[in-house]
Every structure is written in C-alpha cells, then in structure tokens.
Amino acid sequence: MPELSIKTITELLTLLDKGDISSEDIVRDQLAAIASNDAELGAYIWSSEEDAILQAKEADRRRQSGDSAPLLGIPVAVKDVLNVKGQPCTCASRILEGYTAVYDATSIAKLRQAGAVMAGRTNMDEFAMGSTTENSAFKVTKNPADTSRVPGGSSGGSAAAVAGGEAVAALGTDTGGSIRQPASFCGCVGLKPSYGRVSRYGLTAFASSLDQIGPITKTVEDAALLLEAMAGGDPMDSTSLIEPVPAYADRLPDTLAGVKIGLPKEYLGDGLDPEVRAVIEESIKVCEEAGAELVEVSLPHTEYAIATYYVIATAEASANLARFDGVRYGARVAGADPIDMYCRTREAGFGPEVKRRVILGTYVLSSGYYDAYYLRAQKVRTLIRRDFEAAFKQCSVLLSPVTPAPAYKLGEKESDPLQMYLGDIFTVTANLAGICGISVPAGLTAEKLPVGVQFLGPALGEEAVLGAGHVFERAAGRQ
Ligand code: GLN
Asked: pTM for the full model?
C-alpha cells in the first residue's frame, strides 16, 4: 500500500519542509505503487525509474542548498500530449510511437522551475479525442472506483493515477471536458483554466481555440498550487493572457457568505441520471449552508452546444493533425510517391475516432459547407459566450453537474460515438465560451461511483471557482 503517493501536495510539502521525507522517498513510493497496481489500472503509458529518481535527487539537492521553490520535490504525472524534453510524447497514437519530445512545454518548464518532478506519462484518448480513454492506441485504463468501468477521458490516465494512488497529482488537458469529466468519474478534483490562463506552447494541439492545460489533484488547494505555478503570459503562445497570477492557494476562502451562486436551469432539467441529480441537489444545499445565496439563471443556447462544439473542434483538429504526415514526426509507412506515403502513414497511424474527426472536420471546412457549418457554429459560439456573460452579471459562479450520468461500463458506448458525444453537454460550453470550471468530488451513487459537481466562473475567474470548490469540499466533508 503506498503511503506517500496517496497524500496531497500540501501534506507532502509539510513533510518535506520538516525534513521527515525526501523527494526521492515520494518518487520511490509512487514508482512502487505503479509497479504493483498499474498492470491492472493501466493509467500510465510510460514511466522511468531512472529518469524520475534523477529529478528527485536534484530536487533534494536544491532543497538542501536552501532553495524554497514552491513545489520542490513534488512528482506530477503528465498526460501524454504535453511535451517534456527527453520523454516520449505519443498522444496515445501509433503515428507518434517512438517519438521523443525535443523541448519542454511552457507549463512543464514552469513546473520544473517550481521544483516539480515530471514523473511519467499518462494514458489518454488518442490526440485527446474521446470521453473514456478507450481510444488510446496502446491500452485500456480502468476506473479505480470500479475496474469494470471507464475512468472518463480524454485525461483518463491522469485521473485514474491520482484517484488510484499512483500519482500525487497530474496534468490533463481540456478541450471539451477532458479534465473535469474524468475527475468526476474517478473522484478527484479537475480544473480547466480560462482560455489563455496557461500557455499552450508545447501542448500537442487538438482544437487550438478550445484547448487548455490544467491540474487533476486530490484537493482544490493542490489544484490552486499547480495552477499558480503554471499560469501566466508566454511570448511563445500569443493567445496566452498577460495578466498577473494571483496567489491562488493563499487566497482560498473559508466561507461562501456573500457569494452568489447561479443555478443554470438548462443544466438541471430532464435527462439527468436520478443519482446524479440527488448529488447535485445535496451539493446545492451544502453551498447554501456554507453561506451562498442561490439564484436561478438561464443559458438559453445550451441545446446547440454539442453540435457547435463538434463542428468547431473537428474543424480545428483536421487542420492541426495535417502535420502528422510521416515526414516530420514519428511513424512512416513507405509509399510509391509522397502522396501515397502520406496516405499509408495516416491510414496506419490514426485510430478510427481520429479518422472520423479529421473527415468530419475537413468536410465542415470545405468550400460550399464552410458557411453552412463552420461559420454558423462560430456564430452560435458567440451566443453561448453571451449567455455566460449575462449569467455572470447575476452571480459570481455557476453550479452544475459535470456529466449527466456516472462512469459507465468499459465498452458500453464504444460503438456509439454520438451517444458518447452527448455526455459532454455540461462541459463543452465552458471551452466554447473560454471560461473556467472545476469539478469537485460531491458524492457517491449506491454502487459507490464518484459523482462530481462543477463550479463555472467567468474568464479569469479562477479565484472564484477555486474558492467555491474549496469551501464546498470542506463543508461536504470531502476534505
Ligand atoms: N469528450 C470531448 C471530445 O471527445 C472532449 C475531449 C477533450 O476535452 N479533449 O472531444
């Protein structure tokens, strides 16, 4: 049984500061947890004792020489879509099998500066396209709460590693819910920052106008610590926001008194699993008892969100994935001429969901259909953003479910992509609007499956969602 990798970042920092443990102890404990559990859980695509111990020893040296970097010696598991120099970066795709990253993503460089140890690569849906991690070309990841069920996705490996005691904390990416949904399914905290809050440089792009990097952790405070270390403007990403980064973790409140929480009526209507509804209703009560004032709000364009998201995300994906042609990265299948080589490489290298999306995205961008689909989706996106702007005039955060139902069985929805897409209804809107959101464990179903509650905040409203999440997790007795 691991003793250190099940702890929170804050607990470990206290032990490190007291000199009771070293970073090497933590990393060894985490590696032992991976060695004993990961054959069953399948959370990691890659981890290396040699590489992780080297970094841990360096962190221990830094600490001994008086360095007080905020995350010094804390191991962080990284979704296999973020470039960490010298480590593989496959995006769980055959097309990048054998590829080694040649530089650090900005978020990774910042975490390294803060002293964190990059402790392995977590499984994901291929190129982050999916909701179950079943689209990985390499392995199946199981939900630690019930190994017959999916961990969610696309950051399913990160969530399973954190919830299963195989990672102190992890990074995920969220284009339409891929941090918040697996966090909810596995019972951990997942934060999607506002668009531009964290630099995307070094994140292998899926849909560039929607992608964000964020933490998956055991507590809201841990998420705040990781965000603080990663956030900020970056000359390498012109869409990153050059706004000061608050000391998120120091500013967590202990009450919701004076906080207005909006309840979007479209998110609490029909189609919610009764057990999820019960958890959300209970969560609303917890917030009220913690001092929040509740107001009903409306997000009238919610019904168009899935269609809008799947047009925009696939369009951007089709453009972004054009670079995987067998010339520059990873795998190559030889052909009679260059075009034949591109075709063979992409045919062999991409899995069925990626192909489906590249085809759909190419179609909605093609002349004749561009106006009817892509342009129209962009217009609806503006309406969805305005819905949120209007709602945030009445409240500082919104409370909603993360998903309509808890984690389902492995294989259950694999053959029905549309059914799977519909499960993204409460998460894609935040990406379309560029706002932030957090998923916090809120309860369990009768079968002991975790259910999360989502707090959404306006663009750059991370302090508000972290605050609401933190007070909620304490009041609900979850921390
Ligand atoms: N489930 C959504 C999709 O399949 C979201 C993915 C993500 O956020 N990366 O596109």
From this structure: 0.98
